[in-house]
Amino acid sequence: MHEMALCEGIVEIVEEEARRRSFSRVKTVCLEIGALSHVAPEAMKFCFAAVAARTIADGAVVEVVELPGVAWCMACSRSVEIAQRDDPCPCCGSYQLQVTAGEEMRVKELEVD
C-alpha cells in the first residue's frame, strides 16, 4: 500500500509548513488526487489517520478533491476526459491519446489553528 508512504510525505509537508508559518494544529488537510494517479482516496484517509497520530496533524480531517483524467486526442485534436489510461477517445474512438491531467496528487490547502 503506497498510500502509507504518501501520507508520511504529507505529514512532513504539514510539519514543515507549521515551522515556517508558526501554527500549532492542523484541523483539515485538503488533497487533490487525480483519477489517473493510482491513489485510492479512501486508503489515503485511513492511512493519514494512522501516520498523523501524535503529530501536529493528529485528528485532522482529510478532504479529497478528485480531479478527472484528461488527455489530448491526436486524431481529433480535442482535449477529452478519460477514466483510465487505456481508454479510447470518447469522441472518435482513437487510442492516440496523450495524458495532460489527472496524474497529480498534492496538498491543496490546510485549515490550521
Give a description of the structure:
The chain has helices at 3-21, 41-52, and strands spanning 26-34, 61-67, 69-73, 78-82, 97-101, 105-112. The protein has 113 residues and is of the alpha+beta class. Strands 2-1-6 form a three-stranded mixed beta sheet, covered by helices on one side. Strands 4-3-5 form a three-stranded antiparallel beta sheet, with no helix packed on it. Strand 1 (26-34), helix 2 (41-52) and strand 2 (61-67) form a beta-alpha-beta unit. The two termini are 31 Å apart.
CATH class of one domain: Alpha Beta
Largest sheet report = 3 strands, mixed
Number of helical segments with 4 or more residues: 2
Tell me the CATH topology of one domain. hypothetical protein PF0899 fold
CATH architecture of one domain: 2-Layer Sandwich
Distance between the termini: 31 Å
| SSE succession | HEHEEEEE
Give me the secondary-structure category: alpha+beta
Low-pLDDT runs of 5+ residues are none
Mean pLDDT: 96
Strand order of the largest sheet: 2-1-6
Give me the count of strands: 6
Give the CA-based shape.
elongated
Specify Rg, calculated over alpha carbons: 17 Å
Task: Report the sheet-strand fraction.
Answer: 25-35%
Please estimate the helix content. Answer: 25-40%
Function: Involved in the maturation of [NiFe] hydrogenases. Required for nickel insertion into the metal center of the hydrogenase.
Organism: Bradyrhizobium icense
Pfam family, one: HypA
Keywords: Metal-binding, Nickel, Zinc
